[in-house]
Specification:
The protein is mostly helical. It is 49% helix and 9% strand. The protein folds into three domains: 61 residues; 100 residues, DNA polymerase, domain 1, CATH 1.10.150; 161 residues, Orthogonal Bundle (hpI Integrase, Chain A).
Amino acid sequence: MPYIKLRKQADGSVRYTAIVRIRRSGKMLHQEAKTFTHRTAAERWAKHREVALENPTALARAQQPSTKLSKLIRWYIDSFEHISKWQRSKQSQLLFLEKHPIGDVDAIFLESATLVDHVRSRRAKGAGPMTISNDLTWIGVVLRAAKSVKGLPVHPEVVDDARTACRELRLIGKSRRRERRPTPQELVKLDDYFSRRDGRARVPMRDIIWFAIHSARRESEICRIEWADNDQRGRTGLVRDAKHPRHKEGNHRRFKLTAEAWAIVVRQPKNSEYIFPYDPRSVSAAFTRACHVLGIKDLRFHDLRHEATSRLFERGYQIHEVAQFTLHESWNELKRYTNLRPEKVREIPQPASNADHLTEDVPGTNPCAA
């Protein structure tokens, strides 16, 4: 039977502490308590807990020492970061969750309602639906690892329940398709800015931004392309450990270089094994700083990859040919980076025979009607 203990507060108010004890053969197996403002609430909770703890699995969970989610995240990072070699985006999001208030929750007793509250709070503070969806993804990854590796009685399935509820409530979803391309005027500004700056800067940003535009490479890829991997005859390069949702390590992909990109490569000094031996974070920071100085809004370095892909289509390359430059594996992936401008679409000459046939269909132009 549960025990309700009355506690008088300094201000004269009364609190009720419900105490639940589980005994087997005269031995105390488990005890827990919770305090309420009303006695009926305390009694209701105690009865509910007694019934729940009759389940051996629930009792085993309750007997586990408190395991904060933040501690599991730290364990996951320390155990698998160097083995899995994941990207910066995953690392930064795990570190964010470790320090976020959600990290103070006991992972053993984590419920879907707690995760939904987390998502709702994050959305209220301006986080995007895809960003918060990634929160749930990484929490689920950590819980599954804790269950399979550490043998903790956590329940990763609560993440799936929370995700379903959040989708129905439209709290999470796919990221909006980004269509931002730099305008010709913005490129002139950036080119002029970096032309004046590069003489005294360590990172040759002018060459890097134009290489990105002519090669469709990410900043992280640009900074790890090796001289030894270049093929002058085929005008190709190699991306080592190319980005992939599941298989990144060892995923080396050869890509085609445009004539403009190749010209930028060959004029770089050969003082390192890498063509552009710089930290990609420095490249990204320099680009962001330049946009701020020049008053260019909502432009990211990654948008240059959109620009590069769109330019390839505007040149007249077909889907399968563009993929040899960008290394996209499917049209669904490639079209996210394709933001064509109508005025840039190439004109395809009409065959003479077809032109004559079309002329006959236009009223007043049929030669036989004269």
